[in-house]
Design a protein that fits this description.
alpha+beta; four-stranded mixed β-sheet; two-stranded antiparallel sheet; 7 helices; 6 strands; 12% strand; globular; binds zinc ion
Length: 195
């Protein structure tokens, strides 16, 4: 590999893992392709290349092994990747009063910050806010602040996982502004195969 005019250029590769079994599951193959496309679109800095590659490989490995659901892997991958890309959400506390946790916390998908329920009452422009469950907020903090394979080491009930997926996907689409073709294909397969 060498640094070209428009980025790093790979001129030689050695195969380590084929992820052979993915090819038997169109929805998994589509999701793996979406992971690659999103990585390309976000154009991460070279300093994050190693972490990005490890995240991608760990995610695809999990896809193949079927240890957790595809939606779980997707949400964790997406949130960690946008964090690497310089769009890490500010989940430390409420933007206005610095409360770490209150009964209800709201997340702004356009600007990636938290607002507690008391401060939310005073917010005039309420578009773009999604109410987070405690489980989803904990999960988002866990993914952002953990490293390596540990980011996948938690469980979430289906209803919370659905909300996590919605929050993260909407945040991503607000960053990249256009739904990737591979994501559309994955959703079609997901619907067809009821993943
Ligand atoms: Zn507040």
């Amino acid at each position: 590999m060498f640094c070209g005019q428009y980025g790093n250029v790979v001129d030689d590769v050695e195969e380590i893992e084929q992820f052979f079994n993915l090819r038997f599951f169109p929805e998994k193959l589509a999701l793996a392709q979406y992971f690659c496309e999103l990585s390309y679109i976000l154009n991460l800095p070279a300093t994050k290349a190693k972490e990005q590659l490890n995240l991608l490989l760990n995610s695809v490995w999990l896809l193949e092994k079927e240890k957790v659901s595809l939606e779980f892997i997707k949400a964790v991958f997406e949130l960690k990747l946008i964090s690497f890309s310089g769009h890490m959400p500010n989940l430390v506390c409420c933007k206005f009063c610095c409360s770490y946790e209150k009964e209800d916390m709201f997340f702004n998908i356009y600007q990636s910050f938290l607002v507690c329920k008391d401060c939310f009452k005073k917010v005039e422009q309420k578009n773009g806010f999604l109410k987070l469950s405690k489980a989803v907020l904990y999960a988002m903090r866990f993914i952002i602040y953990k490293d390596g394979k540990d980011i996948f080491k938690f469980k979430l009930e289906k209803s919370h996982l659905d909300l996590l997926g919605e929050v993260i996907e909407k945040s991503i689409l607000s960053i990249i502004e256009k739904e990737p073709l591979t994501l559309k294909i994955y959703k079609e397969f997901k619907e067809e195969f009821k993943v």
